[in-house]
Fold:
Amino acid sequence: MSTAATNSSGAAIRALAATTLVAVLEQGRSLRPLLAERLPTIADPRDRALLEALVFAVLRHRRRYEYVIDSWVPRPLPAAQNAVRALLLVGLAQLDALSLPPHAALSATAEATRTLGQPKLVGLVNGLLRRATREPWPQSSDDGIRLSHPNWLLRALRRDWPEHWPQILAANNEQAPQWLRVNARRASREDAVARLAEAGFSAQTPAFPTMALRMDQPSSPTALPGWDAGWLSVHDGSAQLAVEALAPQAGERILDACAAPGGKSAHILEVAGAVELTAIDLEPGRLARVRQTLDRLGHRIPVTLIAADATQPARWWDKTPYDAILLDAPCSATGIIRRQPDIKWNRRASDLPALVKTQARLLKALWPLLRPGGRMLYATCSLLAAENHEQIAAFLARNPDAEALELDARYGHASGVGRQRLPGEDGMDGFFYALLLKRDPH
Structure:
């Protein structure tokens, strides 16, 4: 490929990164579906990887980069030039988080200004990035800017985790490792590791979760040996622990509420085998992914899939009680910011009351579906007390037939009657667990 062609390709990717950031930061779009739309349009896998790396780096370090721009550009760019401002963020990310060669980064980023239809601003972009290669960057003592988190979330984490908030914020800005779950119905963990090693992939076998692998380097799942044969699933260690806490047993009747995309439903079948499993999700499209997941993994045990509102069981429940219920509740997702850094900027403090109310409605609606002596595992990928231990404390106060069962230190820090894993600990995501027993009145 000629130098001109390379520069053209590099400029196009940087311009696409800038417009993707505008869609996320200015229009509130979710990053994952945006990338799902845009990545397939890029032919070269190296360019696809660069686009992802650029966007993730900016979203992780946005406020720190904006502080540099605001310190060095005295007059703010008008709203019509938001894409150029985003491009400046992309330029700084290349020099900082990605450590790309300055000459190539500057050249392609300046050219991307023309791609965005702003040739008059090439000098501004070029000048700021050249300055960033020569001078120390402006530093702020503000923790929100220095660690690049919105102020509301910083305050919430300081309040809820006064001893741990600095490590949480630092972990949120790191790349999460790739976790896999070995399908116990298809292979042992040792067999999976050996097969991966034969193909040149290396993975760690942590003490827990039982069937988890942590990859030394992330890879496209479909490139992994055994993927098509249903040996492996992508599943963070903390999410796997939710099913281990529930401890499903063969012969039980189990409900997986809020089941999409199906990782935990599949895990239940792999752990327990012959169970009577019902998986419910509000959106039919998301529920279809549960079926796709189960089919890929080769699970033959019939699973009842229901597209319905879990808070309204009168519309879908057959009146036969469940032995166990897994409620992985909708939440703020503040424990998985490493994987979805757009959460930092698109989640608002004002979102929390509605989420807390939905969680309480789910608990209230699903508890009567559990038989006496049965158990419910309440889980979220949140770090916030209002959604976690405070939610469970309020539920226990309202339901005298509910009792919290103790979970051990594998599940994280003691948090009320539950346990909280923090992001980055043992390489896992942030997750909360509370295991509830329904007392038998007899």
